[in-house]
Amino acid sequence: xxxxxxxxxxxxxxxxxxxxxxxxxxxxxxxxxxxxxxxxxxxxxxxxxxxxxxxxxxxxxxxxxxxxxxxxxxxxxxxxxxxxxxxxxxxxxxxxxxxxxxxxxxxxxxxxxxxxxxxxxxxxx
Length: 125
Prior knowledge:
single chain; 125 residues; mainly beta; seven-stranded mixed beta sheet; four-stranded antiparallel beta sheet
């Protein structure tokens, strides 16, 4: 139901744009999160965007370089990554979480309902 794409090999300082296309979900009822996992490391929060596009939050490690957006008409979320660094190398995952009135921590991967298959991003130095 979630399909991530757009990964690849890029030199340090370059850019990539990841997409997360969803199907079978009422997309505009879901918050969308991005996470990444490097070899031998735990899954790491990157950022999320709530239903209200004004509510976006980033990990400190990517703040100012990455931008999350969503297009509810296309049922797709995006992760624009600029000024990439070798330490950004990882498999990137998108995830969807149904929003309710309950307050939850969207930075925690355990809170998400659905996951994409991941897309590899490799940044060479």
